[in-house]
């Protein structure tokens, strides 16, 4: 095995070229009632549209649509036909166009391969595009050999569309399937060969951009909706079709309805799954579409909806592709997900070779101790008391503030991280380093991961009750359950980054024993990549740009903690998580507790955010006149009424008011991921696992309040979709959406204050 085979670096040079053809597909379904069954209705495919985008010849782009019960079967036939035709086109090679004077002069000055960026020697050659004949660059002959026309044609489709296509596969409508990509959440892509031709590579659209399709028309300006504009040539037609068109979901309860000639009433456009009705304005637009395009049947109208949807999908993704190629020189559709794309983008950018762990003990040492973000509710209810909301002069003035760390993952990824020379320290070395743990250089050439025993002195329990150190997965004696919590039990064989260990010791925990130490070489190898994306995001204008740059940072972190992966540097993911926690603890203990001693309560924490109750007349005035505190904040989003100038916009590691300077009146915290806020009269409600429309329409702040203060269980009924044997069905379910009690903390008798688990609580 070569030394480089044990390291991670960028190798996919061929993916720097744009894929010639991409197909975008959209499948719509009728909601067929299922009387006598547990389900309310089953979603049956009733129509499709697909558009083909060719990057080198616009005349080869096209759009097709169809409606009918056999739509998926027909779609397969058409896609196979398209794949064969595309394959034939790709076999046609074009002679090089030659070089102009400027290109000739440029070549004489080139010293690096345009593909791998390594130095050019004698093995260099001029490269031309095989389909257009255009000059590409000067590169190594070996690198040129890697650059081939891809054998797969990406087909971008929604999650439901992918399910319908796999349903056809399960019924034997495909000759062969190459492989299916997926994770514990489900399948999100597969490839199928077309004998003698190309592969069709099906990818799920939300694995690249998770923006709901309802918002796609808002992402792009009209000038970038080129596919829609070319298809609907008349300006009046384009104005009608350039945004989301409503499908009559409730009306389409049988395939017969597709041939009806009467236009559905407004009630027919009700979306049961989202509990959403069509607005009068949108219904008028739907009627105009029917009239302007001369629709004779509901199926004709559905085809227009499908064409508009798939063309919008194509325009959004083509804009996304162009952005990726412009900023990163890679085509995202060489990949199945944004995460795998981001990983290659990062490797290409940093040009660092990351060592892969082969020692199974080291791998287990890190994998078994990866701990996610901290989520807990420390105080369950608070009512602000200040002159900007309600004010009771007999009680202390208080503010509730919701603070969020800008790009916390990006900040952590910008710190020193491991990359090579991993080794276990000997017992003699451990004994030598033990007295020096508290003064280890954090940005030195070498870093460490420790396995230690720590004692948590009882004198610290009251001070640390809101936020104890050392998050861990353990069985709570009183509960008899294993949960991931903060607690005051002494730590045994606890594995942690050396910087977190230093933090614990400086805050009073006692080091009793060091079992093992993993030493490694470290540097800020990810910082240039994070900084590049952060700067791009800060100057971004469009939503699609802002979303992309944030995704590309977050996705890289996700790749480093893939538990089953042996070809990723999981040590980096471990340290990123540890450093993220260290940042939050430093902010809480060094900044907020120091600024407001005995006058602050931590209400809630979720990974990168804090919700505080602070005894102060005006938190924003405190911020304005405390320069040291102000420097730690991103104030670019604050309401102008506070008179605080904008600074530190999008800077990683700066704290930001999540409520944009609006006054928070009330907080109700049921438990982890379940809480609500009254923000200047606007309700902000969180309830993990509950449909958005249920939270929006059918759960109130009063419900949260009753659950917290009155131990009331709140139960709601709603439609929920499920998939079995590639059939999508909707079920009416009744579920407890708010439940009193909290496994992560012990709730006191007043039902508001809580205690961290530990020896004193157990006693």
Notes on the protein architecture:
With 763 residues, this protein is α+β, with helices and mostly antiparallel strands. It has 3 domains: 20-93 and 148-336, 2-Layer Sandwich (Nucleotidyltransferase, domain 5); 348-371 and 412-574, no CATH class; 376-406 and 584-762, no CATH class. 32% of the residues lie in helices and 27% in strands. The chain is built from 23 helices and 31 strands. Strands 2, 3, 4, 7, 8, 9, 10, 28 and 29 form a 9-stranded mixed β-sheet that branches. It has a 6-stranded mixed β-sheet with strand order 12-21-22-14-24-23, covered by helices on one side. A 4-stranded antiparallel β-sheet has the order 13-25-26-27, with helices on one face. β9 (186-193) and β10 form a beta hairpin. The longest helix has 31 residues, at 298-328. The protein is globular. The two termini are 58 Å apart.
Q: Sketch the major β-sheet.
A: 9 strands, mixed
What top-tier CATH class of the largest domain fits best?
Alpha Beta
Shape: globular
The structural class is: alpha+beta
What's the number of domains? 3
By CATH's scheme, which homologous superfamily of the largest domain applies?
Answer: Ribonuclease H-like superfamily/Ribonuclease H
Q: What's the architecture of the largest domain in CATH terms?
A: 2-Layer Sandwich
Helix content: 25-40%
| E-strand count | 31
């Amino acid at each position: 095995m070569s030394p480089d085979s044990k390291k991670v670096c960028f190798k996919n040079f061929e993916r720097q070229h744009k894929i010639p053809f991409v197909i975008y597909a959209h499948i719509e379904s009728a909601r067929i009632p299922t009387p006598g069954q547990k389900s309310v209705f089953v979603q049956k495919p009733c129509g499709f549209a697909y558009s083909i985008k060719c990057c080198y010849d616009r005349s080869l782009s096209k759009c097709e649509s169809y409606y009918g019960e056999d739509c998926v079967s027909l779609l397969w036939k058409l896609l196979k036909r398209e794949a064969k035709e595309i394959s034939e086109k790709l076999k046609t090679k074009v002679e090089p166009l030659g070089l102009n004077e400027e290109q000739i002069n440029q070549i004489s000055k080139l010293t690096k391969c345009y593909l791998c960026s390594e130095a050019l020697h004698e093995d260099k050659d001029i490269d031309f595009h095989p389909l257009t004949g255009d000059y590409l660059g000067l590169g190594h002959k070996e690198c040129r050999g890697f650059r081939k026309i891809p054998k797969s044609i990406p087909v971008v489709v929604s999650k439901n569309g992918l399910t319908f296509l796999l349903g056809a596969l399960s019924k034997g409508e495909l000759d062969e399937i190459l492989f299916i990509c997926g994770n514990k959440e489900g399948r999100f892509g597969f490839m199928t060969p077309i004998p003698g031709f190309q592969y069709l590579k099906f990818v799920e659209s939300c694995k690249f951009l998770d923006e709901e399709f309802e918002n796609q028309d808002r992402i792009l300006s009209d000038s970038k909706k080129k596919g829609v504009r070319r298809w609907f040539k008349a300006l009046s037609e384009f104005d009608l079709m350039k945004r989301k068109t409503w499908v009559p979901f409730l009306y389409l309860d049988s395939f017969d309805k597709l041939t009806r000639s009467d236009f559905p009433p407004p009630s027919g456009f009700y979306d049961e799954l989202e509990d959403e009705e069509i607005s009068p304005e949108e219904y008028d637009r739907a009627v105009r579409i029917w009239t302007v395009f001369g629709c004779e049947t509901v199926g004709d109208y559905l085809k227009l909806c499908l064409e508009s949807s798939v063309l919008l999908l194509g325009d959004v993704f083509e804009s996304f592709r162009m952005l990726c190629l412009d900023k990163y020189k890679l085509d995202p559709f060489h990949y199945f997900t944004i995460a795998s794309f981001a990983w290659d983008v990062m490797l290409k950018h940093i040009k660092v070779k990351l060592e892969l762990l082969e020692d199974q003990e080291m791998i287990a040492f890190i994998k078994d101790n990866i701990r996610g973000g901290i989520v807990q509710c420390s105080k369950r209810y608070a009512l602000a008391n200040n002159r900007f909301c309600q004010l009771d002069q007999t009680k202390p003035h208080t503010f509730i503030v919701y603070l969020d760390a800008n790009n916390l993952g990006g900040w952590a990824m910008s710190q020193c991280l491991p990359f090579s020379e991993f080794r276990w320290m000997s017992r003699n070395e451990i004994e030598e380093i033990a007295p020096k743990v508290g003064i280890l250089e954090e940005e030195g050439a070498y870093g460490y991961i420790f396995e230690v025993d720590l004692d948590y002195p009882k004198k610290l329990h009251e001070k640390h009750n809101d936020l104890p150190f050392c998050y861990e997965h353990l069985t709570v004696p009183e509960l008899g359950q294993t949960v991931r919590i903060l607690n005051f039990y002494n730590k045994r064989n606890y594995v942690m980054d050396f910087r977190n260990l230093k933090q614990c010791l400086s805050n009073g925990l006692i080091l009793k024993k060091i079992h093992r130490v993993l030493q490694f070489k470290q540097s800020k190898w990810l910082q240039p990549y994070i900084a590049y994306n952060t700067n791009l995001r800060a100057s971004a204008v469009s939503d699609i740009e802002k979303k992309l740059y944030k995704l590309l940072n977050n996705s890289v972190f996700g790749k480093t903690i893939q538990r089953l992966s042996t070809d990723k540097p999981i040590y980096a993911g471990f340290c990123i998580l540890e450093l993220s926690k260290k940042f939050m603890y430093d902010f809480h203990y060094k900044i907020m507790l120091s600024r407001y001693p005995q006058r602050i309560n931590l209400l809630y924490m979720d990974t990168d955010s804090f919700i505080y109750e602070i005894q102060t007349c005006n938190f924003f005035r405190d911020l304005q006149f405390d320069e040291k505190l102000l420097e730690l904040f991103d104030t670019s989003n604050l309401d102008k009424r506070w008179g605080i100038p904008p600074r530190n916009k999008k800077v990683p590691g700066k704290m930001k008011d999540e409520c944009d300077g609006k006054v928070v009146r009330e907080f109700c915290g049921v438990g982890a991921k379940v809480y609500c806020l009254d923000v200047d009269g606007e309700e902000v409600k969180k309830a993990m696992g509950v449909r958005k429309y249920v939270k929006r329409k059918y759960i109130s702040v009063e419900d949260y309040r009753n659950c917290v203060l009155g131990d009331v269980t709140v139960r709601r009924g709603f439609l929920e979709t499920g998939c079995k044997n590639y059939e999508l069905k909707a079920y009416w379910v009744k579920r407890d959406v708010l439940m009193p009690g909290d496994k992560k903390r012990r709730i006191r008798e007043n039902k508001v204050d809580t205690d961290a688990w530990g020896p004193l609580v157990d006693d």
